[in-house]
Amino acid sequence: MSGDLSDLDRARLRWRARRGLLENDLIITRFLDAREAQLTETDVRALTQLFEMGDNELLDVLLGRADLSGAYDDPVIRRLVEQMKAL
């Protein structure tokens, strides 16, 4: 799946990305619209892990009000969050 996600993989990723806070939805959707075609299997696993974060905690990270910590402090997750922040 290196950069070539199937339609089912794309649908699953977008389903996992749905959040309770509109702000998170907007940031994540904008990121997926721009970068989904380049995502690797490793990226998808990292995003799936990131999407397990609570909505408010995730929003704080995406807005730069908090840093990633614990299990979320991973180089791939950090890179993806920085890409989301840059869009």
Automatic annotation (TrEMBL):
Q: Which Pfam families match?
A: Sdh5
Q: Where in the cell is it found?
A: Cytoplasm
Q: Which domain of life is it from?
A: Bacteria
Give the principal location in a single coarse category. Answer: cytoplasm
> By its UniProt entry, which SUPFAM superfamilies does this protein fall under?
YgfY-like (SSF109910)
Keyword set includes ATP-binding: no
What are the entry keywords?
Answer: Chaperone, Cytoplasm
Please give the family membership noted in the entry.
Belongs to the SdhE FAD assembly factor family.
The protein in question is named FAD assembly factor SdhE
